[in-house]
Fold these 2 entries.
Entry 1:
Amino acid sequence: MERLVRSCYKKKSGYVFAKKAEDIAREYGISKIARLASNENPEPLSPAALAAAEEVLRTVNRYPDERVNILMNALRAYYGDYHFVTGVGMDGVIETIIRTLVEPGETVAISTPTFSFYALAAMGQGAEVITVPREADFSVDCKKLIEKAKEAKITVVCSPNNPTGNATTADDVSEILEGIEGLLFLDNAYVEFSDCDYLSLMKKHENLVLGRTFSKVYSLAGLRIGYAFTPRWLPPWYNRAGTPFTVNSVSAAAAAAALPDKERAVRYIAQVKRWRTRYADEVKFPVLPSDANFVMIDVAPHKGDAVVESLARNGVVVRSCRSFAGLSDHYIRVSVGEDWENELFVEEINKL
Ligand SMILES: *Cc1c(COP(=O)(O)O)cnc(C)c1O
């Protein structure tokens, strides 16, 4: 019966998870694994978020608030008077925005190498994907992007970029916004770890969406909750395209409580800044400059996959970058975790 499955899913592999390396570590009998493959905050969620989630858990016999008011109010209280949409992770937001705007056969332009889900989501929508490669140093060539993406319905730029770590300046983003005819989805999953400020652009541009997530700095990856700053015109259409009651009540309450509870976020951001420098100083391979909570490392002449396997056998799980289309096979991506995890990583990689 598999003939029934759509050809777009048969042609390409799906999202690549970091689980395989964890399995290797476990096979080698290692119980205390350094988890540095998924850019999560190693600290558990804040007590306020936990308490909010526990309280709402008692009410899950009822459907959630379809307007997600608890989180919308928290976002407005925290950021001010902007327009927002929410979703099942930022991934859910990305998928719904594509569903809202892109007819089958229309174009989604993606600045690559980058996070793989944009192309998967666009493909699932029957979109035509065009990729626009970054420069050799992974910066975005705005002129080239504008030329190639001019007529795309949606253009996607990730800043700070996963997996390369570098950010695109607000001036460059502004230039792109003025040059293209469609919408720019600027993925800000890691913006809290950078000094970039794109919010001022929201007031000036009708075609900018800033994707955000609670999965990284806010320690809520398991609750699958994301949001975006949008222009005023978008939310009613987004809500029409989305599934009913998309965001569950527990996740919404936890996220609303986590947002203003800054202590842990501030602590982790300081940890990230400390370790970006330490990785650059202590790892014997070239570490690319990063504005995110991970770094990309050039492990040539080794291959990324081989290094990931070898580290996994020693209890350190990192991500090979081979599956990022448009990137050569000698890079790995390593998150900033707890001190012992990062130290173990440095020790093991320097043995290669
Ligand atoms: C982690 C990540 C996301 C998705 O986050 P979720 O909210 O967990 O879906 C989106 N974009 C990038 C670049 C990411 O690295």
Note: The longest strand covers residues 107-112.
Entry 2:
Amino acid sequence: MDDFSVSLRDVWRAKKRIAGIINQTPLIYSEPLSQCTEANIYLKLEQSHPTGAFKLRGAANKILSLEEEAQQKGVTTFSTGNHGIAVAYVAAELGIPCTVCISNRVPAAKVNRLKKLKAVVEKVGSSQDDAADRCRQLEKEKGMTVIKPFDDKEVIAGQGTIGLEIIEQCPDIDEVIIPLSGGGLLSGIAFVMKSIDPSTRITGVTMKKSSVMLESLGHGRPVRLEEEDTLADSLLGGIGLDNHYTFSLTKKYMDEGVRVEEKVIENGLLFLMEHHKMIVEGAAAIGVGHALVHKGQLQKNTAIIVTGNNIDHEVITGLLRQS
Ligand SMILES: *Cc1c(COP(=O)(O)O)cnc(C)c1O
């Protein structure tokens, strides 16, 4: 694994660095899912962070790794929500300036949370790429550091701490099902799991609409796709045409990439509500939805990453009315 600039040592460093901000999240055995799938299914509850999503890990590790002077000039980010919230949260904790640039597609609940965290919020364009351009401008003009949502060594190492926790909490895990967008989450966890045991199966799951990473892997290089509305809105966004890390890491460590229909995501959400009394967002339920339609095909001890809970109330009521 020497062609990869992130090492296990970097992930252990991340674990120590973020310990003051991040608490270990629970890994729970799911009786109802285990019964439905004929495997032992564990849920890694990443929605239990104070920001409601795992992105706090990568953001905390990146910002804490910056020099004091860079921290004081402030941080900026482009994001479909959870990463922006994480960056704003860490900046507020450290008392440093933060500007978040977001596209017009970001749901209202997420915008309000950013404002509560005292971040300056700038709305630009209709895609993550437009927001990214504005960030780079702030970097040039004000010397702020752009905190990327996934394609960054320290961010990947931060997300990789989930892998360390899984191994500690249940050393028997032999498959991990991971929601996939930019691939920072998958790269970090997969790198750790495969370093510890190369036979661990890594499955990435994304929505059929705009699955940019899988489309890119199919073309052998990063491509751009038009964004379409989906229940898994946190999985929207490009992977960057000049992707440095996550494209090659995902290619190297993911055993299978799966695209699922909206209905599968919806069923995952409803299952977690009904059987675990748990409300999460579409992106976070996609792994559960996938498991439900793969009865008998999962490894013996499978962990599913439940990634976040930032869902609009209207979406929940809409779903419950239909079901
Ligand atoms: C960001 C995010 C993902 C995907 O993570 P990537 O590192 O971009 O692949 C999944 N679920 C939620 C809730 C997210 O916020």
Note: The chain has two domains: 8-53+152-322, 56-146.
